[in-house]
Amino acid sequence: MAPVWIHDHQMAGVADRFLDHPPPPKTSISGTDYHGSVGAYDMKDMCTFRLRFDLSTTLSLDEIARYYRAAGIRPSEGGNDSLEFMVWESPHLPGYRYGADDRPVIVEIQDRDHGSFWDLRCM
């Protein structure tokens, strides 16, 4: 089997750095769980990591995106020198209590251009 643990370990490192960084003002992270995937989204033999986190906030989507783009969260070694952040509104999460003005959002992080290292998800 291909050594997928290398990319899984790198993706977990990005998740840890995101979770260790304080969230924007008036924003909370809904949990430490995240949705992650590894694949060749743009070009063959190059891996991209996608991580998605659920947040609750009163800020605009642009404010959250600007905050994380300026945060200086370090990408994994071997890929691009910076992370890409996208933010969009999400449906309400079941069982999560929102404040009166809070709304659920998803922050997606992309860490691009890692070599495949024989990871079949990237070929």
Outline the fold blueprint.
Blueprint (H helix, E strand, L loop, with lengths): L4 H16 L6 E3 L5 E5 L6 E12 L3 H9 L14 E6 L13 E13 L8
Antiparallel strand pairs: 1-3, 2-3, 3-5, 4-5
Structural notes for this entry:
The protein has a single domain, classed as Threonyl-tRNA Synthetase, Chain A, domain 2, CATH 3.30.980. Helices cover 20% and strands 32% of the residues. The protein has helices spanning 5-20, 61-69, and strands at 27-29, 35-39, 46-57, 84-89, 103-115. The chain has 123 residues and is of the alpha+beta class.
Give keywords.
32% strand, 2 helices, alpha+beta, single chain, 123 residues, Threonyl-tRNA Synthetase, Chain A, domain 2
Short description:
The protein is of the alpha+beta class and 123 residues long. It is built from 2 helices and 5 strands. The longest helix is centred in the N-terminal third of the chain and has 16 residues, at 5-20.
